[in-house]
C-alpha cells in the first residue's frame, strides 16, 4: 500500500528543519520526500498545511501487566499511545512481579501484540529490582530486552551495582538509572524549600539528584557501561552531566514532559495528581531544564506515563502514589513549550523521537528516505479543554484535567498503517 | 461581614478582619467561662464530632468543653484504634460520618493536608485541630488572644518562636497569623530543626537564642517533638537545653516585660527551665489553656452561624419555587 501525504509541514529532527512538502510511504517505509506528485494507486492524504513528524519514541512507559491490568493493559496503553502520537513505546519493568526473568519477558512480549503501536521492553537490572543480584542479563537480551533498569529503585550496595554494570558493559547493554541519593530522598513527597515548608510536607533537597548522578557517573567511568539517566530535573545536576559528556562517557539524560511543563507550586492545596518521582521542581529549575533540552544537553523527553487508580490517588498527599498518565497529553503539553517560544518543533521532535531511537539503536524517529513510516500528523494550534474521562488510558490520573491546551493529534501511522484518526480523507 | 468561610482549615485563608472577628467574639466567651453557669445555646441542637487520628488529651478536651458549653451534642471518636486499622480510607471514613449529619467536625490527622482532603467530602463545617506539620489554626488564634490581652495589641510586636520549628504546625500557623497582623517574627532553633527555605516566607531565621531573643516582646517556646523525629536532629537533650532551652540567662536578652508562652505539653529541662515556666510574672502558659477554650467556642460559633445562614439560604430558595 502506498500513501501520499500532500501539503504537509515536514518536521525533520535530524536536520532541525521544518519545510513544506509531500511525502511518499511505500511498503511501510518512507520512500520519498519533496515536491513530487502522487504516485498512481496511492492513498492521498491531504495534510492541509498541518505538521507531519516522526512518531514519538517514548522511553519509560509503565503498563500494568503483569499484576495491575486494571490500571493499564497493553491494549489500553497502545490505544492511548496511538491517540497521543507515540508510535514506539518502551515499557518499564516496575510491574508486579517485576520483569526480571526471561519467562516474564516472554509473557509481556506476547501480551504486547494486542497494542496497535510498536512496543519494546526493558528488563530489571537486578532481581526484584532490589539492587543486590543482577538478573540474567544475557538471556534477557536474547529474549528482546532493549535496556535494563531498576526504575526508581536506587541500589545502595554500590559493589553489587558495579558488578551488574560491568557485566552489562560486556554485553554492550544500555542501563537506565534513576540518579538520586536514596538516604536524602527517603520519605520525601515534594522538593524542599519554602513551598514544602509552608505546606508542611517532607521534602528532598534538589542536591540529592546531583549526588546520585555524581555516583552514577563515577560507576560509569569505572565500568564503561552505556548509561542513561532517566530524569535529570535540577539545575545543579547539569554541570556534572556536561562534564561527563565532555569526558567522552557513553551517557545520555532524559526528563519527563511534566517536569518541563509544571513546577512545584502546581501541587497547590495537596493535589495528588501533581505528585511525581522525583517531585516537581522550582520554576528556575524547570526553565533551566527547558534550556538544557534546547541545547541538547538533556537528550530525551519521555512521558514517564504512570497509570494510577483513583484509590491510590485519593489519599493524603504523603500517602498517595506518585506519577501521572501522559501518553495522550504528551503533544499538547509539549506544545506549551513551542507556543511559549522556548523550543522549536524540530527541537522537540529531536528529543521526543530521534534521540531516544538513536540511543536504543532503533531505526525510528527519523523523517528521511528509508526510515520506517512511523508518523504523526498533528495541529499544534488546535485548542481544547482536556476532559480526563475521554482518555483512552484505563487510569485517568492526569495533572492537566480541565486545562486549556493546544495541539491535537490528527492521525498516527505505524509502519505505514494508520492506527489513529479518520480513515477517510 | 467577616469570617464567611465554611471551614477553618488554616490561618493561610484568613484575613486580618477574620482574625479580629474571632478574637473579639472570644473575649466574650472568656467572661462566660469565668462564671459559675457557663452554658449558652449557640450550638443547641447541633452535633459536633471530634475525630482525632492522633493522640491528644489537651486539644480534644478543650474542643469538647467548648462544644458542650455552647450547647452542642459532642461525640468523641478515637480514630487511631478504629476502622482506620481495618483498612478504611480517610475519604470513606469521612463519607460514613457525613451520613450521620454532623454539623461540626473537629479533625486532627498525622498527615499534612489530610483535613483539607476530608473537608472536600463532607457537607458540614470542618475545623482543623492539627494536620501533620501543616497548620493548627486554633492554637495560633488562642496564642494571639493571649498576646493581645497581655500586650494590649497584636501588631508591631517582636515575637521569637523558638525550638523545633521543622516538626511544628503550631509554628507555621503562628508565623502566618503574626505575619498577617504585621508583627516581626523570628524563628530561632538549630538548623536541623528549621524548615528549608522558611527565610523566604517573611520571617527572620536565627540559630542563636541570644540574637533571636534580642528585644523580643513575646517568647514562644515549642516542644521538642521526639515522636516525629527519626533520629539525629540534635546531639542530646542536655546539649539542646544548654543551647536552646529557655532559662533566665537567655530570657534576659528579651525585653524586661516579655512574656513566655508554650503550647504544651512541656518538657521541663529540655526546651524550658521549670522556674521560668512557673514564673507568674513572665509565663502565660496557663492563660493560653484558658484562652484555648474561649477561642474554640468563638470559632465554632462563627462556623455554626455561617452554616445556618448557608442552610437558611438553601431553604428559602426552595420556598420561592
Please explain how this structure is put together.
- The complex is a heterodimer of chains A (about 425) and B (about 325).
- By secondary structure, chain A is α/β, with parallel strands linked by helices.
- Chain A folds into two domains: about 5-50 and about 375-420, Urease, subunit C, domain 1 (Roll), CATH 2.30.40.10; about 55-360, Metal-dependent hydrolases (TIM Barrel, Alpha-Beta Barrel), CATH 3.20.20.
- Chain A is about 30% helix and about 25% strand.
- Chain A is built from 13 helices and 18 strands.
- Chain A has helices at about 75-85, 100-110, 135-140, 160-170, 180-185, 195-200, 205-225, 240-245, 255-260, 285-295, 310-315, 330-340, 345-360, and strands at about 1-10, 15-25, 30-35, 45, 50-55, 55-60, 85-90, 120-125, 145-150, 175, 190, 205, 225-230, 250-255, 300, 375-385, 405-415, 415-420.
- In chain A, the strands form three sheets. In chain A, strands 1, 2, 3, 4, 5, 16, 17 and 18 form an eight-stranded mixed β-sheet that branches. An eight-stranded parallel β-sheet of chain A has the order 6-7-8-9-10-13-14-15.
- The two termini of chain A are about 15 Å apart.
- The model of chain A has no long low-confidence stretch (mean pLDDT about 95).
- Chain B contains eleven helices and nine strands.
- In chain B, α1 (about 15-35) packs across α5 (about 135-150).
- In chain B, α4 (about 115-120) links the parallel β3 (about 105-110) and β4 (about 125-130).
- By secondary structure, chain B is an alpha/beta fold.
- In chain B, about 40% of the residues lie in helices and about 15% in strands.
- Chain B has a five-stranded parallel β-sheet with strand order 7-6-5-8-9. In chain B, strands 2-1-3-4 form a four-stranded parallel β-sheet.
Amino acid at each position: 500500500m502506498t500513501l501520499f501525504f500532500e501539503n504537509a509541514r515536514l518536521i525533520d529532527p535530524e536536520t532541525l528543519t521544518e519545510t513544506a512538502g509531500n511525502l511518499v510511504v511505500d511498503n511501510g517505509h518512507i520512500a520519498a520526500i519533496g515536491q513530487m506528485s502522487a504516485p498512481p494507486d496511492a492513498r492521498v492524504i491531504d495534510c492541509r498545511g498541518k505538521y507531519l513528524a516522526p512518531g514519538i519514541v517514548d522511553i519509560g512507559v509503565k503498563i500494568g501487566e503483569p499484576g495491575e491490568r486494571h490500571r493499564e493493559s497493553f491494549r489500553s496503553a497502545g490505544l492511548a499511545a496511538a491517540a497521543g502520537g507515540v508510535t514506539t513505546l518502551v515499557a518499564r519493568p516496575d510491574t508486579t512481579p517485576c520483569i526480571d526473568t526471561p519467562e516474564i519477558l516472554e509473557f509481556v512480549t506476547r501480551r504486547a501484540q494486542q497494542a496497535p503501536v510498536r512496543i519494546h521492553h526493558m528488563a530489571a537490572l537486578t532481581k526484584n529490582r532490589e539492587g543486590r543480584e543482577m538478573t540474567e542479563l544475557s538471556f534477557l537480551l536474547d529474549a528482546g530486552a532493549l535496556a535494563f533498569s531498576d526504575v526508581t529503585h536506587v541500589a545502595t550496595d554500590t559493589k553489587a551495582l558495579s558488578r551488574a554494570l560491568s557485566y552489562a558493559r560486556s554485553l554492550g547493554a544500555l542501563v537506565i538509572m534513576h540518579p538520586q541519593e536514596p538516604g536524602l530522598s527517603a520519605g520525601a513527597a515534594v522538593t524542599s524549600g519554602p513551598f514544602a515548608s509552608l505546606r508542611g510536607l517532607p521534602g528532598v533537597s534538589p542536591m540529592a539528584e546531583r549526588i546520585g548522578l555524581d555516583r552514577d557517573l563515577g560507576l560509569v567511568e569505572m565500568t564503561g557501561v552505556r548509561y542513561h539517566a532517566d530524569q535529570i530535573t535540577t539545575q545543579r545536576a547539569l554541570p556534572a552531566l556536561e562534564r561527563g559528556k565532555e569526558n567522552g562517557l557513553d551517557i545520555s539524560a532524559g526528563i519527563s514532559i511534566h517536569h518541563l511543563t509544571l513546577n512545584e507550586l502546581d501541587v497547590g492545596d495537596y493535589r495528588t495528581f501533581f505528585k511525581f518521582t522525583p517531585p516537581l521542581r522550582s520554576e528556575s529549575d524547570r526553565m533551566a531544564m527547558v534550556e538544557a533540552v534546547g541545547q541538547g544537553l538533556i537528550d530525551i523527553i519521555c512521558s514517564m506515563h504512570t497509570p494510577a487508580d483513583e484509590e491510590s490517588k485519593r489519599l493524603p498527599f504523603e500517602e498517595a502514589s506518585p506519577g501521572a498518565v501522559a501518553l495522550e497529553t504528551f503533544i499538547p503539553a509539549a506544545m506549551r513549550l513551542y507556543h511559549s517560544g522556548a523550543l522549536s518543533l524540530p527541537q522537540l521532535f529531536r528529543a521526543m523521537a530521534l534521540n531516544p531511537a538513536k540511543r536504543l539503536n532503533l531505526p525510528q524517529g527519523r523523517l528521511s528516505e528509508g526510515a520506517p513510516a512511523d508518523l504523526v500528523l498533528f495541529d499544534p494550534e488546535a485548542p481544547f479543554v482536556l476532559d480526563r474521562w475521554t482518555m483512552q488510558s484505563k487510569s485517568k490520573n492526569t495533572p492537566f484535567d480541565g486545562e486549556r491546551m493546544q495541539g491535537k493529534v490528527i492521525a498516527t501511522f505505524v509502519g505505514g498503517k494508520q492506527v489513529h484518526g479518520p480513515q477517510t480523507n | 461581614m467577616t469570617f464567611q468561610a465554611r471551614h477553618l482549615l488554616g490561618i493561610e485563608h484568613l484575613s486580618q478582619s477574620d482574625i479580629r472577628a474571632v478574637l473579639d467574639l472570644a473575649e466574650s466567651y472568656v467572661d462566660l467561662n469565668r462564671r459559675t453557669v457557663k452554658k449558652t445555646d449557640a450550638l443547641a441542637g447541633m452535633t459536633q464530632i471530634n475525630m482525632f487520628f492522633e493522640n491528644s488529651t489537651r486539644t480534644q478536651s478543650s474542643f469538647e468543653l467548648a462544644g458542650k458549653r455552647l450547647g452542642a451534642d459532642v461525640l468523641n471518636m478515637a480514630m487511631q484504634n478504629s476502622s482506620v486499622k481495618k483498612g478504611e480510607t480517610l475519604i470513606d471514613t469521612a463519607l460514613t460520618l457525613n451520613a450521620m449529619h454532623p454539623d461540626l467536625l473537629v479533625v486532627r490527622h498525622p498527615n499534612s493536608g489530610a483535613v483539607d482532603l476530608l473537608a472536600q467530602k463532607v457537607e458540614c463545617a470542618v475545623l482543623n485541630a492539627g494536620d501533620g506539620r501543616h497548620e493548627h489554626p486554633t492554637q495560633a488564634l488562642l496564642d494571639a488572644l493571649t498576646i493581645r490581652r497581655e500586650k494590649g495589641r497584636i501588631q508591631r510586636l517582636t515575637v521569637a518562636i523558638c525550638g523545633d520549628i521543622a516538626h511544628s504546625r503550631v509554628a507555621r500557623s503562628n508565623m502566618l497569623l503574626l505575619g498577617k497582623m504585621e508583627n516581626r517574627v523570628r524563628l530561632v532553633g538549630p538548623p536541623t530543626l528549621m524548615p528549608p527555605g522558611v527565610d523566604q516566607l517573611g520571617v527572620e531565621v536565627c540559630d542563636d537564642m541570644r540574637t533571636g531573643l534580642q528585644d523580643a516582646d513575646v517568647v514562644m517556646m515549642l516542644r521538642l517533638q521526639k515522636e516525629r523525629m527519626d533520629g539525629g536532629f540534635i546531639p542530646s537533650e542536655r546539649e539542646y537545653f544548654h543551647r536552646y532551652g529557655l532559662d533566665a540567662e537567655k530570657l534576659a536578652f528579651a525585653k524586661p516585660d516579655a512574656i513566655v508562652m508554650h503550647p504544651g505539653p512541656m518538657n521541663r529541662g529540655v526546651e524550658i527551665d521549670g522556674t521560668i515556666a512557673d514564673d507568674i510574672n513572665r509565663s502565660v502558659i496557663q492563660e493560653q489553656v484558658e484562652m484555648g477554650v474561649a477561642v474554640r467556642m468563638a470559632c465554632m460559633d462563627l462556623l455554626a452561624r455561617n452554616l445556618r445562614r448557608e442552610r437558611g439560604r438553601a431553604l428559602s430558595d426552595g420556598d420561592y419555587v
